[in-house]
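Researcher: I'd like a candidate sequence for this fold, 230 residues long. If you have to choose between options at a position, lean toward the conservative one.
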């Protein structure tokens, strides 16, 4: 796997994770455009992490390429559902693997996910209505619920209300940044004019800016597109 990751690293931002690690989701750094599984001498036990990854609703739309011989491919498809989107022989060249990855990414319509954190149900409903047509949207009503959500799923962007009871936006962001897999996830504060000082106090946590509530739809979409492109 080390050689394969190094080869792909010349063309993509590639991350390698050992399949025997049962908690593959915790090792992922960001949301990939393609998942490549190199399967050799596998067993059902070794596939537990891959099964969890494939069944995760936040990742299910990401294309998966399986590299395996005939026997391992049969065992893989028996246990991992949905089945991989494409399969290539274990002895395929690195060039053939890159071609297969490019084809999968070209035909895949990636849907980015957004987590909205706000204790105001009216604000949650409004922001969801702005985003539903373009993104996969999840909403929670507190910083604590956001942390529980992030233990299982990895959104591409987080919209975080600045002023919330019990745990405010900056406090929530501090705990989010303490999660290894969430250190680089873009977080945009939703704030009122009177809360700018609170936002500025959290600049060391590297938020991706703030939007003043009530949020303008065009400005919101533009800001999200900007941080995703960045």
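Model: Candidate sequence:
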């Amino acid at each position: 796997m080390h050689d394969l990751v190094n080869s792909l690293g010349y063309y993509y931002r590639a991350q390698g994770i050992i399949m025997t690690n049962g908690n593959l989701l915790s090792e992922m750094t960001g949301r990939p455009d393609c998942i490549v599984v190199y399967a050799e001498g596998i067993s059902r036990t070794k596939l537990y992490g891959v099964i969890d990854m494939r069944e995760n609703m936040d990742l299910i739309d990401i294309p998966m390429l399986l590299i395996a011989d005939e026997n391992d491919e049969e065992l893989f498809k028996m246990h991992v559902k949905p089945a991989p989107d494409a399969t290539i022989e274990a002895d395929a060249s690195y060039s053939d693997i890159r071609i297969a990855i490019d084809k999968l990414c070209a035909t895949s319509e990636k849907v980015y996910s957004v987590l909205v954190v706000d204790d105001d149900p009216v604000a949650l409903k409004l922001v969801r209505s702005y985003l539903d047509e373009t993104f996969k949207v999840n909403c929670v009503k507190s910083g604590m619920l956001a942390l529980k959500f992030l233990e299982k799923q990895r959104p591409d962007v987080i919209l975080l209300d600045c002023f919330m009871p019990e745990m405010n936006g900056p406090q929530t962001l501090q705990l989010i940044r303490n999660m290894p897999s969430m250190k680089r996830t873009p977080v945009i504060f939703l704030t009122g004019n009177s809360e700018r000082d609170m936002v500025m106090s959290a600049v060391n946590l590297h938020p991706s800016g703030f939007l003043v509530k009530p949020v303008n739809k065009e400005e919101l979409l533009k800001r999200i597109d900007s941080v995703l492109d960045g």
